[in-house]
## 1
Amino acid sequence: MNAAFYTLGCKLNQIETESIADAFRRGGFSLVSWEQGADLAVINTCTVTSRAEQKARRVIRLALSRCKTVLLTGCSARSGEEAALAGSRAERLVIIPGTAKDTLLDLPRFLADTGKAEGRSLRAWAAERLRAGAENADPEKKTPKRQFRFNPSNFSFHSRAFLKIQDGCDRSCAYCRVPLVRGRSVSLDAAEVLARLRDLETRGFDEAVLTAVNLCQYEGGRNFAGLLELLLEGTERIALRLSSIDPALALDDAFIRAASDRRIRPHFHLSVQSGSDAVLAAMGRPYTRDSVGRAVSRLREAKDDPFIACDIITGFPGEDEGAFLETRALCGELDFAGIHAFPFSRRPGTRAFSLKNRVPERLAVLRVGELLALSRTGRRRYAGRWLGKTVEAVRLGEQKKSLFCAALADNYLKVGIKSDRLPPRGAFLCELKALNGGDNGGTENFDMTGEIARG
Ligand code: SF4
């Protein structure tokens, strides 16, 4: 039997799919691309924007036209709607709520024992698992196990390792559905995080991405800064890359002390969302425009010219021209190397859903365009500052079509290296030679081209 996987959304979804795929691979399934059709397709969905949900629906339809049985899970997996969408094919669609996604880790064993992969049997199996899960659940336990069963022994779709350390969120930003679908904040115990990181190091991984809904809410017996200290003391060589952080974290002395360690990658992604204090307050974000500026300065003190990127939502209700100009000005002043901008999406169940003063989507999209233009020049300027310098890099996946193989530098720059010279695995020192768009054909996917550093 074979299985295919399709993931939408964040790094957490990525590592959860990696774990499920790993369980299928170890269960003797061959992993195939879902385009070619499969016995079983697993779709891991996202609910952060309505666009993500629309995309999930398209993928469901395509998967049902190519695959025998489709398992739908993740943050926007809701029984009614999808079943209606599937129509006559609903028989072959099995929905596992995102909060019970971990049951899919046990599915390969059920299939190996029974061989029953058709919709009806899998729905019965899922219902039984959900019932058993509900019976054994103990909501008081601050570090429930099920969210942290996702610990892949190998990565099928990524060459770097991801380590899930926290899930859910105790905050309720006005535009966000995450707390509604992933629940309250839970953390993996610090000792267990260390054990898993040591295991990755022993297995030869050079870098692990610490992954969470919100790293600032980590509390597995220590806060996040304390966890970083423990991980750096308890390992020797593996580098740590952080998934996105709140600006407030970068104002914490203990975090800055830990972040200045050479094994913490010089790459920080700040979830800023707006540069207007009025909009930040309306969003329910616990910081101001000024504290974002101070956070960026602290990070630049802690590291030698780190890659600093940010998330921005444009068109939040009440964002008038003045507020947007404040956001654009802040992004320009702070010279971000990357700006992930996306238009506000009205999400059911959130406070912002019923806010007045809505901004026309056309205008929100125009504002995204302005910020992405700023992002392109900021990224090129950042890459230009690294020309001729030597950085540590790790290989990203197999060489595809061009002469160049993709590598990710410690400062998050994407580098093209002549493929026949790249070590199959492991970190290496790389000299950054030219900005992309030079006369080296096939560099379009990279910020720069580079060579393995001599000596
Ligand atoms: S901090 Fe806010 S935006 Fe982030 S997951 Fe929590 S509620 Fe959503």
## 2
Amino acid sequence: MLWVKAFHIVFIASWFAGLFYLPRIFVNLAMVPVGSDAERARLLLMARKLLRFTTMLAVPAVALGLWLWLGYGVGRGAGWMHAKLGIVLLIIGYHHACAVLLRKLAAGESRRSHAWFRWFNELPVLFLVAAVILVVVKPF
Ligand code: HEM
């Protein structure tokens, strides 16, 4: 079980590296001056590649967590696990929101300011802190 937990943490950390950096690219995209097509195309390419890579990391991160929970029964019926799963659903929703925002940015339909994307970029920090406290401290 410890190998599963070890790789769960490795993939969680990698998933979050992507979730921290992707909205950063959105901040830059929202600040690209009109007419700077080359810079816009470069940032869009980076964002698409990073989204694909981050999604590939999210799958084993969640799968290994489910293995710990359902396979080994760790946290089954525990309040902290249910709360953690709630946070996980928010994280998956955030990941999906990044894909939708990228589609809108690529189509030139995004009306969000760079300031909005800076606040949006802070959310994964809150999710990570909440999930790690729940699973390590197990407060309830
Ligand atoms: C469906 C998704 C997930 C499930 C079912 C899940 C389940 C679990 C389970 C059962 C453990 C073992 C807890 C223990 O041994 O005490 C664990 C460990 C851990 N999980 Fe998850 N997890 C999921 C997603 C996440 C996410 C999104 C994060 C971080 C944001 C995360 C962070 C951790 C950490 C840091 C540990 C190690 C805790 C320790 O060693 O005390 N997990 N996870």
## 3
Amino acid sequence: MNPVAIRDSYDVAIIGAGPAGLAAATLCAKGGLSTVLFDEQASVGGQIFRAIEETPVTDKRVLGASYWRGMDLTRAFRSSGAQYVPEATVWSLTPEREIGVSLHGGSVLTAARRVVICTGALERPFPIPGWTLPGVMSAGAAQILLKSAGLLPAGRTVLAGCGPLLWLIAWQYLNAGAQLSAILDTTPAGNRARALPHLLPFLFSGYFRDGMKLLRAVKREAPVIADITSLRAIGDDRVTHVEYRRGNGAAQRLAVDNLFLHQGVAPNVNLPMAVGIKHRWSDEQLCWVPVLDAYGNASIDGIAIAGDGAGIAGAEAAEWRGRLAAMAAARALGRSVPDPEETHVRDELARCLRGRPFLDALYRPARIFRQPSGDTVVCRCEETTASQIIDAIALGCPGPNQMKVFLRCGMGPCQGRLCGLTVTELIAEHRGLSPQEVGYYRLRPPVKPITVGELAALPKTDAALYAVTRM
Ligand SMILES: Cc1cc2nc3c(=O)[nH]c(=O)nc-3n(C[C@H](O)[C@H](O)[C@H](O)COP(=O)(O)OP(=O)(O)OC[C@H]3O[C@@H](n4cnc5c(N)ncnc54)[C@H](O)[C@@H]3O)c2cc1C
């Protein structure tokens, strides 16, 4: 493996090579700042532009224009002069902006005068009975297999859930020639009324035209069953059926080999929360969002957040947020970035955000699919069930961190990524509090698993730190 020279310090370190990180790194480097971009993936692109430089899906009609738009951003980044470090997992960031990076099985420490966290979003947990069965996975994970390996599911495939990404993945699958037995749409009927007040700005946002075209195309080719109010994955050693109800109707079953679930995305809070950045509960997006200023600067000096990690707004907004954060970083370091003008960046960002309130309201996932009950597994790492959590609340467990002590949920390899929102909402519901009052897991580094060996191999003193020849 080619050695990667990680410097002791940089002007700007960017974490995450999705649209936000690529845009921010390009602008910082163009402004003459020493800039490094770390990403845990093997190639640039983040979630939306995943594997864009080497995807086997070369027929551009399959993934669509919104995917291939990433080529310009990637080329601009590649020629910007910024240092790119792939397969680099940032597991620690301190308020003093010291960064712990795991790279090829070893860890290094570096530092930066400004840090922009662009770690994006994660799919929202979708805890239904049987969601841990083999053959059941998130629709986003299925899309990753398509983008990075050109893989399509074999056999009877059902998509279930709600949100723009579910429809995009269905459309990409159909373009790729996959058969979909059904799409079980869990968008609550009542959401349409809830979204109506936000319709006008949505009509003038780019989402409307593209979204309608995509929805019509999918509904022409795949059977869509709407108003799904309950879902259950059934099977012994793998999923064989999905059981669902429409409205108050009787339970129905579909035979399946693959069940792909999706009910929206939420900011990836692990690194920002572990460094101590202030977050608040967003009832519009049903998740935790960082408290940021107009440039994305966070509650800790010298650290900013851009992209979907700053609140869900989509790929184009992520780019413009990345540029704003880069402008602020350059200014703080006494530099300016060549272009674009700040007013233009803000106009573009405002255009991208115009349709968001409508989408958030229309695709607000139903409570039943966010707050499970009974034996449904909530914490997949520790196999903690909803009833265990609800019993612990009844026993007086006040919050998520005490729940860790009671039941170990949130203490596994994913560090609460797949159960945190569910645990917060269940406690809020059963204690009659708001999620803001209940809070979230206290997150600490390492935010991603590293070996004890990596930790032990780290220099113990500053002198040692600067004496070590970097890997
Ligand atoms: C699975 C999935 C698929 C999606 N597909 C689409 C799509 O096809 N179209 C669309 O419009 N939107 C899609 N989205 C929504 C997506 O959030 C945004 O559209 C867009 O990608 C957000 O850009 P971003 O720059 O904020 O972050 P992202 O694109 O999410 O990029 C963040 C990057 O940071 C990396 N990272 C995270 N933590 C660390 C760490 N600790 N150390 C190092 N690297 C780290 C991630 O691996 C990722 O490469 C998807 C979201 C998910 C979760």
## 4
Amino acid sequence: MTARVQAPAHAGGEGAPASAHEAPGGAARALPMVAALALSAAALAFGEWGADLGLSELNVYKVLRLVHVVVAVVAFGSTFGIPVLMPLAGRGGVATLRVALHFAEQLEEKIVVPGSLLVAATGGGLILSDVSGYQDDLPAWIVVSIALWVAAAVIAFTVQNPAVKRALAVLEGAADNGPVPQAMGPIAGRLDRVGKVLALLAILSLFLMTWRPGLW
Ligand code: HEM
């Protein structure tokens, strides 16, 4: 996530109070994760027992691979727009930057995290399927992809998400149409660098999934 925030040229307009942009609490907030967990369990079961539903093993495999790729595109592809959004929001001032940060936070919560879980589960379903035979002989490129998936999850949870929360905290007391606080600079720089690392991990995974290099 690029946050090379420039001093706002003008007021970002009379935004609604910050709380208007925060995610709803309670059950509504948990819904995407609950849905992703249920779909992930279904994907693993489908990989293992899908053929018992009357589908050919190959069709089970194709359905899982299609879901795997579509979810990977939606979950990881959506994050590539953030480096375009943040500088724009930064130039608009505190109010627009706050909205953009809430957008990034909710994108993570509603799309990226549930989607990432479903990518791993459908990947697991593909491994379990008899078509691939990967469960008997797991190729190196899948082992490395799983390691990259875990690394991305750890970085997102321990570095990126807390940094977004810190950025929102810095904007907490700032006037909507006032200058972006100087304290945002180092946070923005870090969000930008770590965002690039996460993007690189997604592209590396895509390379491994399509090129399937013989690593060892
Ligand atoms: C836990 C992580 C993952 C696991 C276990 C996993 C597993 C798999 C497996 C077993 C296949 C089928 C390969 C075959 O047909 O022989 C596959 C295909 C694919 N995966 Fe993943 N995957 C993971 C993460 C990802 C990620 C993060 C992405 C994208 C960013 C991704 C994108 C793809 C694509 C595009 C294909 C289709 C490749 C093709 O048919 O040429 N996967 N994955």
